[in-house]
Write a structure and sequence with these properties.
There is one protein chain. This protein is of the alpha/beta class. The protein has a single domain, classed as Rossmann fold (3-Layer(aba) Sandwich), CATH 3.40.50. Helices cover 27% and strands 31% of the residues. It is built from six helices and twelve strands. The strands form two sheets. It has a seven-stranded mixed sheet with strand order 8-7-6-9-10-12-11, with helices on both faces. Helix 4 links the parallel strand 9 and strand 10. The chain is globular. It binds S-adenosylmethionine (SAM). The site of S-adenosylmethionine has 20 residues, from helix 2 and strand 7.
Length: 220
């Protein structure tokens, strides 16, 4: 029996799963499980940071049916496909990706799912996609693994996030400063983030993703 823990995220045994929005269709080789007439997709915590965070005990993941999300660094859509399951047909994911190769791989997934809008752009330049992102979003999710990832997040939140909206970031210490111990980098990043956000929860993703801190926040 699938137990519901966080909004739209379920557990079957020790597996984290989401309700498949497109019945019968896999995105990245994950397993499909049928239970009581519902099909679920397993969410691989070795390949997706929010699943790793939940596996490591994250309690609040602020994603719900019908929400609009701005996703920075969507790549080929592995994680975004689970966001797409959770927000459902009434929600929308605007996915920004700078690199053409993963962007091309994202396109068939976006087409089949109908609630992902792929945007080939640099997340450092939100003005380049302000005509595509209509209105303000409920959540900005950032996984770009670059040295200026905090500035990128803040700039996009200023432009696109609703007042009191949520921001979620996967901080990669090795992309910010390889010479510092990860905890020192996390501390410095949190000091920057605290000026703009209320930190709701944070969890380190090791061993599923080395040198990553996953932070859930609310826009002040
Ligand atoms: C760690 S991967 C993302 C994995 C993806 N979030 C997932 O879980 O399925 C980081 C992605 O961010 C993209 N990226 C890096 N810098 C970017 C930028 N300035 N704007 C948009 N995308 C960027 C990279 O091309 C890469 O695809």
């Amino acid at each position: 029996m699938a137990k519901k823990a966080v909004h739209g995220i379920h557990f079957i045994g020790d597996k984290i799963v989401t309700e498949n929005l497109v019945t019968g269709v896999k995105v990245y080789g994950e397993n499909l499980i049928k239970e009581n007439g519902q099909e679920y997709r397993t969410w691989d915590f070795w390949r997706s940071k929010p699943a790793a965070a939940i596996k490591k005990g994250l309690k609040n993941f602020p994603l719900e049916k019908g929400m609009n999300v701005l996703y920075l660094g969507i790549a080929n859509g592995t994680t975004a496909s689970h966001f797409s399951d959770i927000v459902g047909a009434e929600g929308l994911i605007y996915g920004v990706e700078i690199s053409e190769r993963p962007f091309r791989e994202l396109l068939p997934t976006a087409q089949k799912r109908g609630n992902i809008i792929p945007i080939l752009a640099n997340a450092r330049k939100p003005e380049d996609y302000e005509n595509i992102v209509l209105g303000k979003v409920d959540m900005v999710y950032e996984d770009v693994a670059s040295g200026d990832q905090m500035e990128i997040l803040i700039r996009n939140c200023e432009k696109f996030l609703k007042p009191n909206g949520y921001a979620v970031i996967a901080i990669k210490s090795q992309s910010i400063d390889v010479t510092k111990p990860p905890h020192q980098t996390y501390k410095e990043c949190l000091l920057v983030l605290e000026k703009h956000f209320e930190i709701l929860e944070k969890v380190e993703l090791d061993p599923y993703e080395k040198y990553h801190l996953f932070v859930v926040m609310k826009w002040k």
